[in-house]
Amino acid sequence: MLKIVPDPPHLYPPTLEDTLIQASEYARCALAVSHQAIQLQPRSPASTLILASTHELESLRVLLESALIQVQMPAEPGARH
């Protein structure tokens, strides 16, 4: 059954981890769109720009995943400087 009324917004600010997860999802969606655009119009004059965008989005996704891993790692007791 579909929800008619959406969930209320969170009253607390999102954590850094939540923000990185959401940014990763946006990057993944944008990457899927760029892949689809290239498949639909492989010989388009804009295909070079779409491929460049795809490459940049893939780099962004990797950076976001790396940041998320760093946030999720437990802090080691002797790692502070």
UniProtKB/TrEMBL annotation:
Domain of life: Bacteria
Name the UniProt record assigns to this protein: DUF3077 domain-containing protein
Annotated organism of origin: Pseudomonas fakonensis
